[in-house]
Amino acid sequence: MKKRTLSWLLTVALTMLFAGVSQAAEDVPISKDLTAVIALLGLPCGKVVSVAKKGDNDHIAVCENGNRYRIFLNPEGRVIAEKQ
Length: 84
What we know:
The termini are far apart. It is built from 2 helices and 4 strands. It has one domain. A hairpin with a 4-residue loop joins strand 2 and strand 3. Strands 1-2-3-4 form a 4-stranded antiparallel sheet. The mean pLDDT is 81. The chain has helices spanning 2-17, 23-40; strands at 48-55, 58-63, 68-73, 79-83.
């Protein structure tokens, strides 16, 4: 059941993350979505405090604890978070 819930939460977070939203309205929801994605992947972060968009489905997230992650989709369509 836990895997099913985790899978559902990740799906919702990714749907919100990669939805086409205007640039002005994008900043706050993207940081919340990236916070959720990082947490679901089990990485230490706390809260995303800044986001830089590198490209489509490719972001750099800076966490309140100082960690930086590149979050993107790999060719298989899986979400990857690389520590920078």
